[in-house]
Protein: LysR substrate-binding domain-containing protein
Organism: Nocardia jiangxiensis
Amino acid sequence: MLDVRRLRLLRELARRGTIAGVAEALSYTPSAVSQQLSALERQAGVPLLERTGRSVALTPAALRLVEHADTVLAVLEQAAAELATARTELTGTLRIGAFPSAVHAILSPALVTLSREHPGLELSITELDPARAPSALHAESLDIALVQEYDYVPRDPEIGLDTEEFLTETVYLAAPNAEPLTAHRNSPWIAGTPGTLCNTMTQRACQASGFTPHIRHHADDFGTVLALVAAGQGVAFVPELGVQTIPPTVHLTPLPTRRRTHLAYRRGHRDHPVIAAARAALHSAARSLNTIAAMPPGLNHPVRK
């Protein structure tokens, strides 16, 4: 019978493309990954990897086996979820991944609810960019995570993960004055670090308006971004959750662009009691959010809706 742990390694290799990438994600050594995949080949009785120098490629048989691995691992997750429903109290560790602007606004009240209603749970929060969350879920270093997409940066479906709609935010242009986006084609810009969704969105949104932004500063904390705008260092895109306090010299112009957040978890894990409790607490916190959508220009604090 094929070893489930080795199937998981093969699936990760299909996702990441290199043995080194699999080793880093799952905290193995590259040699250990190679040994386990070689053992899987012997179990399967057919070649699974084509080795050329230091690179490897999956054979057609391996790609087919990866499809079965997704099904097998999802069924095992579902079986574990069904067994967990027999417990009278939720225990164990719940590992949640969230982007920085959600930690204060959403995670804090959700953690209060989870701690009160399920004191046997050990809660663990990891702050990370949403682009890294799928890999962490696959590696089982997270159980549930907040993932994102922007209108200009759609999210690719992830094999082995399920998602559900969670939150939609307006994206604002933060600038000294109320001017259209096209008025800032020659302005310096503030964006997230290269490789983040916020950085990609900034470039694509500006390009859709007919220009390429000159990015002078890189910052991932939106409080820092707004402080730089207030200091006259440039303009920036800021989603609703990123606005806690608005500096008096910063004007926010709502744009048609939206940021959409989804809850993500491993396939078959949705109805696990711990995941169900996390989903309920997170949705409740999101429904209680204060937003700035109804805020008239000139106010420097969000108003309650």
Summary: The beta strands are 49-52, 55-58, 92-98, 121-127, 144-150, 161-175, 188-191, 214-218, 236-239, 251-266. Residues 292-305 have pLDDT under 50 and may be disordered. Residues 4-84 form a domain with the Arc Repressor Mutant, subunit A fold (CATH 1.10.10.10). The longest helix spans residues 60-84.
